[in-house]
Specification:
The chain crosses the membrane at residues 6-26. It comes from Podospora aff. communis PSN243. There is one protein chain. The chain is mainly alpha-helical and 230 residues long. The chain has helices at residues 6-40, 49-58, 74-108, 113-140, 148-170, 172-199, 221-229. Helix 2 (49-58) packs antiparallel against helix 3 (74-108) and helix 3 (74-108) crosses helix 5 (148-170). The radius of gyration is 45 Å and the shape is flat. The termini are far apart.
Amino acid sequence: MFSLDWRGLVLPLCYVVVLGGTFMTFSTIYRKRKAMESANLAPWFPSHLQRNVYLSLLHMEPEGGSEKAPKVPDSVIRAALLRRAVEDIHRIIQIRTAKAACGSLLQRGSVGDDLWQRFQRAEKEMEEELRDVVMEANALAPNWGQIIFQSANEIAANTTLRERLDEIQANTEAEKEWWEKRRATIKIKEIEEDGKVTSGDEPVIVDNNTPSATPAGTPSAGSKKKKGKK
């Protein structure tokens, strides 16, 4: 019968075990190092103020000397959650706008891996944030999680439009002043051009009251000479 030589397999088995352990150790250390580097990277977005306000209202602590925390109206909590969703809409738009640009720059080698890691981490954080907002909305009102981001999108669009209109109105006075100066400059140029055109065609004015060098009744020198010859 066929028999295995276990003594001859000891060395290959030890080699496989050592090699596998080395790869596992290296992989673990590499993942931990990458996780530490990713944690030390600067966040893509600043602190989420609207989320902090909502959580503060939701988990208010009792004031000094009182046993119960003050009751926050549900309308205030819903408004805070809606403002949180509006800020999430703004951040989602920024992520969608920057994703194509970051990917293109990364392929060209114009940016490092740190920037791409920051972007991917921000994208994952936003996915978790959206799920959290939907869960909170459903907890406050049934089926509100299905329409909260639709309402937040409308509010964000109106806010952007209002900011654009305010910017246009703020620049109206400066643009009006610039246009007045521009129109005055154009009028001056037109007047100067009209003056140059008409200056060559101006009529010569003869003053009839100015006495001539030779009076009308006095004969000229030429006529005197002719009379002398006769």
